[in-house]
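[Q] Does anyone have a clean structure-token version of this?
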Amino acid sequence: MSVLQNKITQEEFREMLAEAIIKHNLPFSFVEYEGIRKVFSYLNSDVKHISRNTSKADVLKLYKKEKDDVKNKLKSIPGRICLTSDLWTSITSEGYICLTAHYVDENWQLKNIILNFCHMPPPHTGTLLSEKILSFLEEWGIEKKIFSITLDNASNNDNCQDFIRKKLNQGGGLLLCDGIFFRVRYDAHILNLIDQERLKVIDDSVIKIRETM
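[A] Here you go.
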């Protein structure tokens, strides 16, 4: 029985491979697996197999394409963008920072996009954090469209938001009301601090109960 073969578009095939690698967290060498290549050739004998280096280049090309699409969307939205950012340390003592954009599109739909998630080495001072976030905003070309930023109550974030607000207001007052509403605090973080203080009251009782068990 002969296998019916559709005409294959090599560019589309490679883009689908790049999407699969990203979606399923596959290694770039996936495209070099003997069994996988055998399946591709069975489905269509005209397929041109690629190397791991080519698959890596295709993934980076797809990333750039998607990033450009997001940049164009952010530039075209009619309103302003609200940011949330957080910083934490992994169990291996590596610092990471994440910046997320929140906005309402032209169809009045709330959108949330993670703009950056990357390594943030110490020290995590307010000045260094602000410089990092400002570099993100310049990278995406949205420094003139910011409305607010939500940060937790760490002391370094006080200095961070002060520096960002001053930078964004330089040369024209880009922030609404000179940035009076720029800083927003995490309600969940505040509630967590309150609960932690409440739990300290019953620490001794909990310890005694555990010791009797």
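[Q] Thanks! Anything notable?
[A] Residues 52-76 form the longest helix (25 residues).
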